[in-house]
Structure formats: C-alpha cells, structure tokens
Amino acid sequence: MRGNFMYYNPTKLYFGNDSLKYLESELKNYGKNIVLIYGGGSIKKNGIYDQVIAILEKLGKSVVEDAGVMSNPTIEKLYEGVEIARKHKADLLLAIGGGSVIDYAKGVSASVNLDKSLDPWKEYYLEQKECEVKPIPVGTVLTMVGTGSEMNGGSVITNPSQNLKIGKVFGDNMFPKFTILNPEYTFSVPRYQMVAGIFDIMSHIMEQYFSGEDDNTSDYIMEGMMKSLVNSSKIAVKNPQDYDARSNIMWTATWALNTLVAKGKTTDWEVHMIGQAIGAVTNATHGMTLSSISIPYYCYILPYGLLKFKRFALNVWNVNPFGKRDGEPYKKSDLEIAKEGLTMMSEWMKEIGLVMHISDLGVTSEMYDTILDGTFLLDGGYKKLTRDEVLDILKESM
Ligand code: NZQ
Ligand code: ZN
Fold it and tell me: Distance between alpha carbon 137 and the CA centroid of its chain, in Å?
C-alpha cells in the first residue's frame, strides 16, 4: 500500500431497526430552529415523516419544512432552500430521504453564510472552491440506499439550463453530523430505484477498485463488499422485505463511499463523469446512467488493467481459471478469465433488472455532443479517455 493519507470521518452513525430512537438525543445538541428537508412525499406515505415530527414536537423545536427536493436536485431549488434556511435562522438542517435530499442539504448548508453577492453554483460546483464560511450542521435519516451521501461530503447538483450535472466533494466540515440508518425504511423504495441504488454502490466500489498496481488492503476490502452486495442484491430483488439483505446493502453503500476504501489509491470515477453528463440531459435515475454504460466502458478499459480485471473475475465472480477444450482441461489465459468476469457481471446486472442501454434512458445520437461537452475526463484509472473514446463508448452503449 503505497499512498500517504490522513483518515478521519466525523459522521456518527446509528444503525438498525431501532435507530430512530437516537434522533432525540442527537437533536438536543442543536438549537431550536430546524429546517426539515425532504423529497416528493414518500416519507409521508411510509410513516417516517410522522415519526420524526413527533420527536421534533416533543422537543419543542421550531420547524420549517423545505419539501419537494427532486431527484437530481437543481440549482434553482437550492437557491430556494438557502432562502428558507436564512429566513428561519436554521440551527440544523434535518434531511430525510436519499442522496438527492442529503446532497441538496449539504449545498444549502455551505451556501447559507456565503456572501449574498456570490453564487453557490459558480463557487462550489463550477469552480470547485472550498467552503470557507460556517456551514449549517446537517443531520440525516436515510430512506433510499446507494449514494453514500449519508457519510461523505458529496453534493451533486444539476443545472438544467446549462446541461450540467456537477458533483462537489466538500471537506469533512460538511459531512453529516449524524446519520440514522434503519434498513426497514428502505422496504418501500420502488424496485427500479432499489436496483439503481444497488448498481450505484457497485459502481462506487469499481471506480475505486480499478486503479493502481500495488498490493493494497483497500482492494481486499472492496472485493468482500462486492461479494456481499451481489449476494444480497439477488435476495432483495426476490424479496424486498428481507431484512438481512437490505441491511447488508445499506451498510455496504455507506462504506463504499465514505472515503475509507479510497485511501492509499488513485481512483477512476470516469463512469460517474459520463453518467452525470447523461443525467444532465436526460434527468435519468443516477444508478441507471451508470449501469447503461458500464459494460462497454469496462470492456474498453480491460486491456489497460488486465491483471486487475483477472483478479476481479477470480475473487468477486469466482470464475474458474481452468476450462475444458475437446474434453481436455486447460488453463485459461488472463484475457479469457478477465472477460469472463465482465460477462458474469453483465449477467448479474440483467438478472436484477438494470438498464443496459442509454437509448432506454432517452439518449439519442443528437445528444452526443452535449453529453461529451459535459463529460470531465479524469486520469485516476487505468486509461485516461479522449473525447472520441467516450463517443465510442456512448455508441457502444446505445
Ligand atoms: O422524493 P421522494 O418522494 O422521497 O421519492 C424518492 C425518489 O423519487 C424515492 N424514495 C426515497 N426513499 C424512499 C423512496 N420511495 C419510497 N420509499 C422510500 N423509503 O426514491 C427516489 C430516488 O431518490 P433519490 O434521493 O433521488 O435517489 P438516490 O439516493 O439515488 O440519489 C441520487 C442523487 O445522488 C447523487 C446522484 O447524482 C443523484 O443526484 N449522488 C450523490 C453522491 C454523493 N453524495 O456522494 C454520489 C453518487 O455517485 C451520486 O452522484
Ligand atoms: Zn454514484
């Protein structure tokens, strides 16, 4: 393990089907003024809203609601949220939902005390500046699993008028102060969102796994996480109420992107860059933007990181390194093993019901240029792509 690093994660987690009971003691650490942030209303249907409101009322908190945070939250909505939080003199932003709600809350948190002449979109997302003002603390109750936003500094915001969807990775001052993880809260997530979230987790792990040449503990941790995820995902699609499966998926999601497994490594993130550019023009579900390009992407990258793809095939997909030809046993080549791993991944993706083509997300060839303009090209993986290579991958993904 060759990298030099500092590791610190300030988010306090409460995990399990009784975890909401800790919300009360956490809320006592903050002032009276709470902005309750949530999405389109799923929390009202599944009862989480009522449970949280009862706790807030018991503590006598002054609550203002900031509802209607959409999937792939927009900068326009974020401007509104900043005004709400300023007006209410928020002591805490309590985000109840999935990645969209939590990402949005972080964007609001970093912007409330920003000088009014400065535009958060320009400062944080376009120009990627650090947050130098005092953030408003964020606490979360997670209801949809995938992004890892519950224990990281990520905040992805879409600007539809500019056809851009950009992630800002804030520092540890922007990580949620506390997060409540109750796997039962995810039981009501629609199947499409559930499998999209599962692939988002897989993609986060792969973005960090497919890099580097050294023997690195992080890679071994990630192989274990991927095996657990694949196993639990197959169970969850058959029975979404399987507590063991849903709790494993929830925990894997958090660890896939809470900065731990990136330690000591460079990381790729090109699938996310292309996926976000697709999301900016289609508003498609994040995990599906990733699934629809992943097989063409990894087939293209495979020769540049052959030994890692072989290891992935053997250690995650249990590919048999020996085959039979004309009835005789033989040792498969590295390339054969590596390709078989991706074939098994592709079969698993189809089995759990992921979108495998960008055309199924509404992408047309007329959108290629806009997608390419919005795709940042990164160099942390095995191959830095050119614009033309991304175009080939898009065509292959149609
Ligand atoms: O809005 P409501 O009504 O709550 O419905 C949501 C939404 O429609 C629904 N949902 C959530 N919990 C539910 C539920 N429905 C029933 N029962 C429940 N318990 O699920 C839908 C999707 O929610 P959303 O928050 O949009 O999904 P997700 O968690 O996948 O978040 C996606 C956003 O996160 C960003 C993505 O780009 C996208 O904008 N990401 C954030 C990252 C980070 N912070 O580190 C990294 C990721 O790579 C990702 O880019
Ligand atoms: Zn993601």
Answer: 21
pLDDT digits (tens, 9 = 90+) for 273-291: 999 999 999 999 999 999 9
Measured CA to CA, the distance from residue 94 to residue 61 in angstroms comes to 12
Mean pLDDT of the chain: 97
Q: Report the alpha-carbon distance of residue 255 to residue 124 in Å, rounded.
A: 25
Full DSSP string of 8-19: ----EEEESTTG
Is the CB of 257 inside a 6 Å radius of any atom of ligand 1? yes
What is the 309 CA–ligand 2 centroid distance (Å)? Answer: 21
Tell whether ligand 1 has an atom less than 6 A from the beta carbon of residue 98: yes
Per-residue pLDDT band at 3 (split at 50, 70, 90): confident
Fold of 12-185: Rossmann fold (3.40.50)
pTM score over 0.70: yes
9, 38, 42, 72: which to mutate for ligand 1, most atoms within 8 A of CB?
42
CATH number for region 191-397:
1.20.1090.10
Strands 322-325 and 328-331: antiparallel
Q: How far does the centroid of ligand 2 lie from the alpha carbon of residue 205, in Å?
A: 10
Assess whether the C-beta atom of 137 lies below 6 angstroms from ligand 1. Answer: no
- The confidence band for 189, taking pLDDT boundaries of 50, 70 and 90, is very high
What are the sequence ranges of the domains in the chain?
12-185, 191-397
> Which residue is it, tokens 């990645």?
99
Q: What's the gap between Cα 105 and its chain centre?
A: 15
